[in-house]
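To close the section, here is one more complete example, presented without commentary so you can practise reading it yourself. The ligand is histidyl-adenosine monophosphate.
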Amino acid sequence: MINIPKGTKDVLPQDSYKWQFVEEKAREIAALYNVKEIRTPVFEHTEVFLRGVGDTTDIVNKEMYTFLDKGNRSITLKPEGTAGVARAFIENGMASLPMPVKTFYITPCFRYERPQAGRLREFHQFGVEILGSSAPETDAETIAMAKEFLNAVGVTKLTLKLNSIGCKDCRPNYEKALREYLKGRYDELCDLCKDRYERNPLRILDCKNEECKRIIAGAPKIADFLCDDCKKHFERVKTLLTGVGLEFTIDPDIVRGLDYYTKTVFEFVSEEIGAQGTVLGGGRYDRLIADLGGSDVKGIGFAAGIERLLLVLENSGKQIPEKSGVKIYFAPMGERESEVAFTLAEELRKKGMVAETDIVGRGIKSQFKYADKIGAEYVAVIGSDELEKGKANLKKMSDGSEKEVDFRDIYEFIK
Ligand code: HAM
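Output:
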């Protein structure tokens, strides 16, 4: 017996309707905002994530599924969706399209993390990337869209946490202040954070090591170091969100776990699933495209974890509507009848009606049991009488009522 790898999950046929529901809502909301689907490979050259996500992040340092392929190239399974979209944007010359270019994706992602509820090694994201606008209106629209998606899925009771983490002009001043603050306690930092101290001290704010967390608790906040442009941008985002009644709290501790962010960052957090409460996260990334070798195109986006959304729905007792199932089951009594039942079922299917008949050779009694188990709305026994008359007795399973219907009228009758 071979087991599934740790941190991965099967989506079984009896549960797949839940996934389809979330994915449908994602597509519906994307269409409302005129956002088009983009599909990028599940693996990329490792360089895309080293430069995109950043080589001082936990994701790159500890969590990537990286391997050499048979041609000795370093390949990485995508740990997130943004860097691949940025690579595709540059490679396909998408800067020549009308701006902004609005894209979404539904994709598996891979991170070698310690699995727990809501944290997997293979998980799935619905993500949105809006490229080619630096205006705060784009931030507001992106955040509003995230909220509409969560509403559509039925995930309520969420807190929207908002912060600004500055730009290339004001970030260095903050980094200086942070280094100054950490200087006296450098020796107490974890090895990774010692390395981050010089290269990217902002990352220390996101370290999961308990000692580092304690040290960082009293650190200066980036909000106090924003330049005028970043401040103005952030104020405008807040005004626009308030204007559409979108409530938020400012959380100066949100820095996000990826290096590409600038200015606005945000998270939607649920209290219903414990430690892994962030169901959706995102932010602006004004230098990512340039850092990956493209032109000066700015972007903003978000991604929601589908497993976490389903977990929230489950924990809050929300029912996901299951699509209507089998309308009619034809139960043939013998071989000739089975040919007719097969034809009747095929005719209904061609008209778009879900029909089933016996394809495993069950006796009539167990066919009834089976029809009941699969939730067929009607059952019609097809015997020699029925063949002769060209009519079937349609039994409604919910109340046991019966009605004789001409074979040709079954579709209309059920509809
Ligand atoms: P992220 O915060 O790393 O951001 O991931 C986004 C969401 O993916 C999280 O809020 C969570 O719901 C889900 N997620 C992350 N890791 C796991 C895991 N191990 N197991 C289950 N779910 C997980 C990004 O990935 C950015 N690319 C988002 C973004 C798009 N920013 C701008 N554009």
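Once you have examined the tokens, check your reading against these statements. Residues 136-153 form the longest helix (18 residues). The mean pLDDT is 95.
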